[in-house]
Please model this.
Amino acid sequence: MIIVLRKDASEAQVAAVERRVYESGGQSRRVTGDERTLLVVLGEPRLSREEMLPLPGVLDALRVSKPYKLASIEARPRSPVTVGRTTFGAAAIACIAGPCAVENRRMFLDTAARLASLGVTMIRGGAYKPRSSPYAFQGLGEAGLEILAEARERHGLAVVTEVMAPGKVALVARHADVLQIGARNMQNYDLLKACAEVQRPVLLKRGPAATLDEWLMSAEYLLAGGNNQVLLCERGIRTFETSTRNPLDLNALPALRRLTHLPVLVDPSHGTGARDFVTPMALAAVAAGADGLLVEVHPDPEQALSDGAQSLTFDQFERLLRSVRAVAAVVGRELFLAAPPQPEALQPAPARRLGARSPARTAYSGAPGAGGGE
Ligand code: PEP
Ligand code: MN
Model:
């Protein structure tokens, strides 16, 4: 059961409700969210909704049969998450795109410019990379976070980036709009607890060998810790099949719809590992009800420091958006893209003196040293 408390419930009233749960053989956990306080009732207390509703301070009481109480569809029908201009879990399908890793300032800002020109509102890129090999590129760390923040400043894009360690959550949250918890860390409970404490939406990837119930229990850590802005992201699972990197489990979409109110994104890049498969699986995901897509895009995939084989070129990504828009329309949905910035907004100020330095806004496109970090 979840007991929803009134906004104006006094401490004494809440304590009385907690006592009632305890005396009925259950335990309760207080979850203080932005909007209201909930009591998650654990155990099997002999309590009915009818008994709880008249108690002072109680607004509602919901029966939840699943072990994940707050993530369960029984708790609420939908829980859209808004990041800047983008909402996941509402009518439109939204898209996050960008390279696997922030490799240097130049490539990232070029990517940001191109994505913004297509109307994409959210960019991704890892500054901290979980790599199977300790010898592989590990990410630029804090320097990468600064590049991400610069892309946001210049192009108005919301930034999604992975955080791997609890001790880095505060730092990453200062630079990012969305914290990504990667597949390998889906069951890193200390990381989940740390991410629950910051007021940033969390994109929780499915562990490569996690069942839907395990995934939702991880989401429950975030919700129970008071962070109710949770996005799930299906990114393929490990099976006996080796022809693709991680077979993408699209069954998860209709299955999750029955189990949870949380928005579900699909990552057809990690969920296939092969550039040619990304668009077909993105389209399948849209047809199957995804709330959003996460797609790896790189200015020169052949030279990428990670995940080049599954990264789309800018042109391929533009074609993907066109196809997604068409499939979305067939299933009665819409692809959310912002109106691209007006050309005049990107122009240098008109009253520029001859020989004056270009304004910072356009400096990345070829100014000497713009590729710092390369
Ligand atoms: C990524 O998004 O680049 C990534 C490492 O994803 P995953 O955790 O799904 O492997
Ligand atoms: Mn990647």
Summary: The chain has two domains: 2-62, 81-335.
